[in-house]
User: Fold this.
Amino acid sequence: MRDVIARALAWVLSALTPRRPGRHSAEYFAAQTTEPDPTPTNPWSRPWTGPSSQEVRAIFKDEWEQRLPAVQRERLWASQFAALGVDYDFPTMDLGSVVTRERAVA
Assistant:
């Protein structure tokens, strides 16, 4: 019986005390909105963080790499770009030459 009385008293007290708005209420979202920044940041204001054009040309223009098969050449390029900290996702590889229809279906 004490448990029922304690629950009822806790419910009445919680209903009478003022609370902050809930996370999904309109008042909560209205309080969270902020004014937009009047000066947008310019992407050209920070320095270039990628590899330089000389580094990229050195990777693609190597004579020894040009004699490799296409798959090995792409993998070598990907590893060299990874050493520079750049994600290279095989944009020049022709997947039709690597995966044949028979192997893809089987």
Q: What stands out?
A: Helices lie at 2-16, 26-32, 53-60, 63-66, 70-84, 95-98, 101-105.
